[in-house]
Amino acid sequence: MDEKALNTLEFPKVLERLAQHTAFTVSHERAVALRPAGDIDAARTLLAETSEARALLADQPTLGVGGARDVRPALGNARRGMALTAPELLDIKGTLVAARTLVRQLQDAEASYPLLAALGAQLPQPSGVVDAITKAISERGQVLDHASERLAEIRRELNIAHERLLSRMQKMLSSEPYSKALQEPIFTQRDGRYVLPIRAEERSRVKGIVHDQSASGATLFIEPLGVVELNNTWRELQLAEREEERRILLALTALVQSQADEIGAALEGLAMLDLVFARAKYAEQLRAHAPELLPLHPHADGPHPGVTLRLFEARHPLLATEKVVSSDIELFPENYCLVITGPNTGGKTVTLKTVGLLALMGQSGLHIPAAAGSQLSFFESVYADIGDEQSIEQSLSTFSGHITNIVSILKQADQRSLVIFDELGAGTDPQEGAALARALLDHLVRRGITTLVATHYPELKVYAQGTKGVVNASVEFDLKTLAPTYHLTVGLPGRSNALAIAKRLGLSEDVLEQARSGIDPADLKAEDLLDDIHRERERARQAHERAAEAEKAADELRTELAERLEHIEDERVQLLEAARQQAKQELDALKTQAGRLRADLARERQPLAKVQAVKQAIEALEETVEEPVERRAVPESAPNRPLRLGDSVRVRSLGARGVVIGLSEEEVEVQVGALRARARYTDLELLNEKAAEAPDDWHGAVRLPDAVPSEISLRGMRFEDAYSRLDAYLDSAYASGLRSARVIHGKGTGTLREMARDMLRKREYVERYNFAESHEGGEGVTIAYFR
Questions:
Q1: What angle (nearest 5°) sits at the alpha carbon of residue 555, between those of residues 551 and 556?
Q2: What DSSP element (H or E) covers 633?
Q3: Coil, strand or helix: which one is 268?
Q4: Nearest Cα to Cα of residue 681 among 662, 698, 701
Q5: Could you tell me the CA-to-CA distances from 22 to 16, 53, 104, 231, 273 in Å, in that order?
Q6: How far is CA 225 from the centre of its chain?
Q7: Backbone dihedral angles phi then psi of residue 182, each to the nearest 5 degrees
Q8: Which candidate among 121, 321, 340, 767 keeps its CA 20 to 30 Å from the CA of 452?
Q9: Taking phi first (over 0 means left), then psi (-120 to 50 degrees means alpha), and beta for anything else, what does residue 391 get?
Q10: How far apart are CA 353 and CA 314, in angstroms?
Q11: What is the pLDDT of residues 75-91, one digit of tens each?
């Protein structure tokens, strides 16, 4: 990829913003050094990794490489045999623990995030390093007593010697001749040895070694002869401790040295994963989506490179999200060259940079600030000539600088390239500049190079209108506010707004009329016609936006009403159930009273006919009360079109995304990660209009209830009816492309179960079958899997 083009398009600024989301130095360096992938498969893998990371971080926001440090300097020292310090060893330990923890977390989530798990599996796990450092070094960076037996022994002796020394010094404070000679009743240290502060005039009373004196000379710090040996012993043990600690650190350094390559590889792997997480966080910040990268398909009957460029609601990634105006930038299938015209500061350059940057971002594994469904071809190289190329050092004018850059681009670009030119042919005589711009553009078109050009030359509008493969586009201008709207319109050239702007700014009508008289009437008529087209197109765009907003509001209202109805139905069921329970209690009491009355009448030998009638009435009411409250069907708030196998949906109750793998009359079977779930249609939200590839013999959308359901119920059927129904259903289910089917036969006597399993055993297209899980029906349901 051309480095000059990357700088021209400000790609390094994008990488700087990406780097802000990294966790440590190594991944930060990787972020700012990120470059587009060399082939489309690698770029698609990077985009898929970013998508997985976004989903994983949404599920586990705290996941990351916490604890990782840049230990490359420490590894370098270890390779040279230089003893590592305790803090350096702790950094290495923290980095390896971070790697181990992250790998374990990714392995646990492998079913849902296979690409990230594969990256984690590449991280080596150096053996013994973490345990050895943990055993020897505390979290505060101190060598622990049990780092070695020798160190433990030295420190025991050191404590004993220190206690003896302190005890002896304490006694001297209150004994002759020291007590009367002390400047103050304390002892202190000088040069690592314990001393007493003796008044200078009492020097002769204290025998010992003078180590220091105060600034005034009034105090001498003397080590009494009585503690010299104790001080020596304590000091010797300190030196022995320091030497043993050094030996331990050297041993740990040797262990690190022996596995320096593995530790370095683990560090790089952590940086790579941290960069993936940074790409995901940056995508969330931009509210970006993964573009679909497509290969170029050159046409056999002409120079057309077979490019795809469809960016919906595209935004420049370096402009503030709340201020930038999004645009739809699309090359029609028959075009591969876009000529953009319009007023200054109207957004032409921003549009060019947006396309170039989004192409570079997508090929680098970054999600792009554009709507879902955006598509881009994969370009092996991107070239751009934007801005002022003037160079005082090289004695180049603006025009010369542009031409020098263009000459270099023409030598390198080919059909696999994207070329971007801003103000092609500017900086010189307009007539010659226009002729040169047209010749350059024609040269690129004949070579079949995907090209985006911004210009003021009307000659290029005419060229684009009459040349195969080239299409006009324009950035719009609001004459009422005298400000650009930044909306891009593909298919129409820009209008000349000079006279209209001059009129709005108050230029006299005489001057304007004289200016109009110098313009070819045909050109004026064309401008008027172009004005009409732009106005009609703007009305159509506004109408489309209003319709889209109305449709969105209707969808939201439909969903809200469905949820309200669900809530109302829940309340109705609860109220009726409470009333049923109360009625049941009252009937039980009434039944008890009737029984007592019957017993009393029997004892009195009275007729029981009336009591018997009351009893029958109670039993009838009891049957009614025993019936559970049935939930009424709530009107479906399903997607605008029938669901198809392979549709991406969101399961509202789970807050998770999944793919439709089965359809029945009342429910949908959805694959959510490694799990399979069954959901009602009202619980699903269609995420896109594109269904995954279905089998060759699956035709069109699955419409209910005509679709082959993913289950069949045989309960309550006679043997012959169940046999014929199941026989026809299995053939239809297999032919429709279902991967599996549920046969609900119930438990009962087992006759239907054995018949169903015997039929499945004889079907060649049934790969295997087994009972359902206990919570899905257990032995009352058999699940068949088709080949």
A1: 115
A2: none
A3: helix
A4: 662
A5: 10, 14, 21, 53, 10
A6: 73
A7: -70, 140
A8: 321
A9: beta
A10: 11
A11: 898 888 888 888 889 99
Q: What is the Cα–Cα distance from 575 to 577, expressed in whole angstroms?
A: 5
SS (H, E, C) 415-439: CCEEEEEECCCCCCCHHHHHHHHHH
685: tokens are 């939200």
Looking at residue 502, the DSSP 8-state letter turns out to be H
Q: For residue 144, give both structure tokens.
A: 């622990």
The amino acid occupying position 702 is V
Instruction: Name the 3-class secondary structure at 312.
Output: strand
Amino acid at 425: G
Angle, to 10 degrees, between the axis of helix 228-258 and the axis of helix 260-286?
70
**Distance separating alpha carbons of residues 389 and 434, to the nearest angstrom:** 19
CA distance 708 to 733: 6
Measured CA distances, 93 to 79, 97, 266 (Å): 17, 6, 12
pLDDT of residue 435: 86
* Contact (CB, 8 A) for 312 and 152: no
**DSSP for residue 395:** T
Q: How confident is the model at residue 617 (pLDDT cuts 50, 70, 90)?
A: low
User: Mean pLDDT for the chain?
Assistant: 81
Q: Contact at 8 Å (CB) between 370 and 313?
A: yes
Beta strand ranges found along 640-730 (DSSP E): 648-651, 656-663, 667-672, 675-680, 684-686, 711-713
Among 496, 448, 488, 454, residue whose Cα is nearest residue 469 = 448
Classify residue 23 by its DSSP letter.
S
Q: How do residues 552-602 score in pLDDT, each as one tens digit?
A: 777 788 778 877 877 887 787 788 778 877 877 877 777 777 777 767 666
Three-state SS for 533?
helix
Least Cα distance to 681 among 650, 710, 708 occurs for 650
| pLDDT tens digits, one per residue of 695-728 | 333 333 333 334 567 788 888 788 888 888 888 8
Q: Do the Cβ atoms of 702 and 738 come closer than 8 Å?
A: no
pLDDT tens digits, 392-421: 344 345 677 778 888 888 899 999 999 998
Closest CA to 61 of 365, 271, 369, 277: 277
Indicate the DSSP class of residue 479. Answer: T
Encoded amino acid at 718, one letter:
R
Question: Cα-flanking dihedrals φ and ψ of residue 621, to 5°?
Answer: -65, -35
Of residues 350, 577, 587, 596, the one with CA closest to residue 454: 350
Q: How far is CA 319 from the centre of its chain?
A: 21
Concatenating the DSSP letter of every residue in 154-208 gives: HHHHHHHHHHHHHHHHHHHTTSTTHHHHBSSS--EEETTEEEEEEEGGGGGGS-E
CA distances to 175, 191, 233 from 212, rounded to whole Å, are: 22, 9, 21
> How is residue 325 annotated by DSSP?
P
Backbone angles phi, psi at 141, to 5 degrees: 85, 25
Contact 15, 317 (CB under 8 A): no
Instruction: Give Cα 262 distance to the centre of its chain.
Output: 29
Taking the C-alpha atoms of residue 81 and residue 202, their distance in angstroms, rounded to an integer, is 54
User: Other CB atoms closer than 10 Å to residue 463's CB: what's the count?
Assistant: 21
Distance between CA atoms of residues 660 and 638, nearest Å: 14
Cβ pair 755, 747 in contact under 8 A: no
What are the tokens at 583?
């009625």
Distances (CA, A) of 99 to 103, 262, 270, 281, 499: 6, 12, 6, 20, 67
71 to each of 36, 75, 86, 256, 275, how far by Cα in Å?
28, 6, 13, 11, 17
C-alpha dist (Å) from residue 491 to 311, 313, 424, 461, 464: 15, 17, 20, 11, 10
d(CA 688, CA 698): 20
217: tokens are: 């000379």
**Which pair of structure tokens corresponds to residue 650?**
């969101």
Question: Which residue is listed with tokens 């909306």?
Answer: 487
Angle between helices 86-108 and 129-136 (to 10 degrees): 130
The verdict on pTM exceeding 0.70 is no
